[in-house]
Design brief:
mainly alpha, 85 residues
C-alpha cells in the first residue's frame, strides 16, 4: 500500500459533514469542557470517524483505515508537520 498525502489533507479539510477535523475536535472540546489527555482521545475518535467516512466512499480497507487514521491524527495534532522537513 502506498500512502497518498493528498488523501490525508482531504480527510483533514473535509472532516465530517464539511467541518474539518481540527474544527470538529475544538468544538467537541468546548462542548464537553475537556482538557489534557482527553483532548487527544477525542481527536483520535474524530480522526478515525473522518477517515472511515472517507474510506466508505473511496473503498474500505482495514490497513488503509489504520494507517490513514494515524497520519490524520498526527497531522491534526501538529506532530507530522513539526517533524516534516
Amino acid at each position: 500500500m502506498q500512502i497518498d498525502f493528498t488523501v490525508i489533507e482531504t480527510i483533514l479539510v473535509s472532516g465530517i459533514g464539511g467541518l474539518g477535523v481540527r474544527a470538529l475536535t475544538a468544538q467537541i472540546k468546548k462542548w464537553l469542557g475537556i482538557k489534557g489527555f482527553w483532548v487527544y482521545l477525542v481527536s483520535l475518535g474524530v480522526c478515525a470517524a473522518a477517515t472511515a467516512a472517507y474510506l466508505f466512499a473511496a473503498g474500505w480497507n482495514w490497513l488503509a483505515f489504520a494507517i490513514y487514521t494515524a497520519f490524520v491524527f498526527l497531522a491534526a495534532n501538529g506532530w507530522y508537520q513539526a517533524t516534516k522537513k
